[in-house]
Amino acid sequence: MSILIDSHTHLDHFPPNELPDVIHRAQNANVGVIIIAGTTLQSSRRCVELATKYPLLYAGIGLHPMNLEGYLRDDVYHDLMTLGQGSSKVVCISEVGLDFLPTSPDKNIQFQALRRQIGLARELGKPIIFHSRESHKEVFQTLRDERASDVGGVMHYFQGDVNDAHEAISLGFSISFAKPLIHSPDLQEIATTVPLDSIVLETDSAPQPWKKHRRNWTEPFQLPEIANKLASLKGMPVEEIINQTTNNITRILRLNQT
Fold first, then answer.
1. Count of other CB atoms within 10 angstroms of residue 169
2. What is the tens place of the pLDDT at every residue in 17-52?
3. pTM score, two decimals?
4. Helix ranges restricted to H, the chain
5. Which band of pLDDT confidence, cut at 50, 70 and 90, is reported for residue 258?
6. How many CB atoms lie within 10 A of CB 129?
7. Residue 58's beta-bridge partner residues?
8. How far apart are CA 168 and CA 194, in angstroms?
9. What angle do CA 256, 65, 258 make, to 5 degrees?
10. pLDDT digit string, tens, across residues 128-138
11. Cβ-defined contacts of 101-105 (< 8 Å, 24+)
12. Which region, left, alpha or beta, applies to residue 119 given φ > 0 means left and ψ of -120 to 50 means alpha?
């Protein structure tokens, strides 16, 4: 049976003593590769460290729009560049994007950081895994303006409508479905229309201390639930879903070359 690949997690946020068990549970669920996404410079460094330590982990580096404290400075850009050049386990620029919640950083700061990080991706030749909340139109325009299609990538934790999905695909990006697919009729309808060769899977795993029981935290071992739901929606064997989504993210991240 083919392995599953979790294309987006934040395992670097878990307590270090928990990681061996988190990884063991993932492996028991046939999850053979996990991508961990940086959200700050410090987080990106941690992702690279963990990817170096654990064979099934690979790292994304980048600044999340909600974590921006100002414009992306030259020294930070240089540090990200050094990280990207220094390890074959760095496979993408992630997690970058735009977030237009009322509590989000200034939009001008976000646009500047996204543009520079698209430039970083193009300079490194690495794909982009991007975040978009209340900002799809602006994200797509920025990706278009900055020629992000040169590297492609993934629209992470997809929550848009069918037009958003097909616009992302037209820009050279795949769609990533996470656990909301299991319960959302709107996402389920969209998933039936998106070509399987443009779909990848993720859990977006991160600590969830607000949940009453630790066992209810989202982890990579839950990825088969998403694959099974997609198989049901597509009317296809789950093995075919696993094979194709694994092939898709392997191609996007060029994992066979690492």
1. 17
2. 999 999 999 999 999 999 999 999 999 999 999 999
3. 0.96
4. 19-28, 41-53, 74-86, 107-124, 136-145, 162-170, 180-183, 185-193, 223-234, 238-253
5. low
6. 32
7. 35
8. 11
9. 10
10. 999 999 999 99
11. 101/66, 101/133, 101/134, 104/65, 104/66, 105/65, 105/66, 105/68, 105/69
12. alpha
Q: What's the rounded Cα separation, in Å, for the pair 245 and 248?
A: 5
Whether residue 32 contacts residue 4, with contact meaning beta carbons closer than 8 Å, is answered with: yes
CA distance 179 to 2: 21
193: tokens are: 């229309």
Cβ(126)–Cβ(84) below 8 Å: yes
**Which amino acid is present at 253?**
L
Structure tokens at 4: 């599953």
Q: Which residue has the tokens 């992000």?
A: 148
Q: Do residues 90 and 129 lie in contact, with contact meaning Cβ atoms separated by under 8 Å?
A: no
DSSP H/E element including 95: strand 90-99
Tokens of 71: 């414009």
Q: Using one digit for the tens of pLDDT, what is the confidence trace for 133-172?
A: 999 999 999 999 999 999 999 999 999 999 999 999 999 9
CB 36 within 8 A of CB 47: yes
